[in-house]
Amino acid sequence: MRTSSERAERVDTRLGSLAVRRVGTGDMTVFWSSMFVDSHTWDSALPLLLAGAPEREFVLIDPPGLGLSEPLSRRSSIAEAADAARDALAGLGATSPVDWVGNAFGGHVGYQLATDPSTIRSFVAISAPTEPVPAHLRCKIAVLHPVLRLMGAVGPVRAAVISAMLTDPSAATPGIRDVVVDSLNRPTRSSMSHALRSFIIDRTDVTDRLSGIGVPSLFIASDDRGDWSPEDAQRAAASSPHATSVTIAGARTLVPLEQPLAVAQAILAFWAANE
Questions:
Q1: Cα–Cα distance measured from residue 255 to residue 124, given in angstroms and rounded to the nearest whole number
Q2: Rounded to the nearest 5 degrees, what angle is found at the Cα of 259, between the Cα atoms of 98 and 225?
Q3: pLDDT tens-digit profile of 65-86?
Q4: What is the pLDDT of residue 151?
Q5: Alpha carbons 35 and 105: distance in angstroms, whole number
Q6: Neighbour tally for 274: CB within 10 Å
Q7: pLDDT band at 3; cut points 50, 70, 90
Q8: pLDDT at 195
Q9: Cα–Cα distance between 102 and 109 in angstroms, integer?
Q10: Is 70 exceeded by the pLDDT of residue 1?
Q11: What is the mean pLDDT of the chain?
């Protein structure tokens, strides 16, 4: 979905040129999506956020190696992705701290940025575990990763990604499922393989960073993701000086795609409380 006022741009970073969509004018608010997908996972929530916060500019970024961003040509890390995000903010003309909204991978990048109040003014992390990938998921990924590298996101890989991203009812809804499938079809096999290794398999524990996040923060959990439960989000919020948590029902990892109204309402209430 494109809005009538949307501007498409590209911005150079240390991890290649990133595809950006900009909507509105005002205080810059940056959206960074989950691994495997791209900025179109925000499309259903975007009109609701625009209506509720018309004084903001919404900047939606396809992460390195994903969506329409330049293919990732080497192994990287979430820390380097955060440095690439800083490059992007500079290239986009951010002259003051921005509000950051990250889903999964976007939340992991946000944990790196949010300890720096000169970069981030407020922080929303959606379905973004602070701990490494659990052992049972790591084993599953180890089996599927060679298939992804050789054949792309087909067959068992596609099925596994959809299952990890969406609840069963959403996976059976064409308008929702198609957003994930279309996102999977955009990157090259090599780029997706590098991104999987860099941003999921190599994900590190950032629990010790939570106490250093001094900006207002909101940790959003769903009711159907085992490695980022409502209790996990509550513990993370309790470890961060100015954080709260909220649980949104009927979603797994891609909460903004599955429950856009509930996500928009939670984010708008958080922004309003911290103006």
A1: 13
A2: 90
A3: 999 999 999 999 999 999 999 9
A4: 82
A5: 5
A6: 14
A7: low
A8: 95
A9: 8
A10: no
A11: 95
pTM of the model: 0.95
Residue 255 backbone phi and psi in degrees, to 5: -60, -40
CA 244 to chain centre: 18
28-61 burial, b if ≥16 CB within 10 A, otherwise e? bbbbbbbbbbbbbbbbbbbebbbeebeebbbbbb
What Cα–Cα distance (Å) separates residue 196 from each residue in 14, 31, 75, 102, 262? Answer: 18, 20, 9, 17, 29
**CA-to-CA distance for 54 and 27, rounded, in angstroms?**
10
Task: Record the tokens describing residue 97, joined without a space.
Answer: 């701290």
Residue 213: phi and psi, rounded to 5, are: -85, 100
Task: Count how many Cα atoms sit within 13 Å of the Cα of residue 155 in the half-sphere of its side chain.
Answer: 10
Alpha-carbon Rg of the chain, whole angstroms?
17
- Using the predicted structure, report yes or no on whether residue 97 has a pLDDT greater than 90: yes
Secondary structure, 3-state, the chain:
CCCCCCEEEEEEECCEEEEEEEEECCEEEEEECCCCCCHHHHCCCHHHHHHHCCCEEEEEECCCCCCCCCCCCCCCCHHHHHHHHHHHHHHCCCCCCEEEEEECHHHHHHHHHCCCCCCEEEEEEECCCCCCCCHHHHHHHHHHHHHHHHHCCCHHHHHHHHHHHCCHHHHCCHHHHHHHHHHHHCCCHHHHHHHHHHHHHCCCCCHHHHHHCCCCEEEEEECCCCCCCHHHHHHHHHHCCCEEEEEECCCCCCHHHHCHHHHHHHHHHHHHHCC
> Look-up: residue for tokens 């900009």?
22
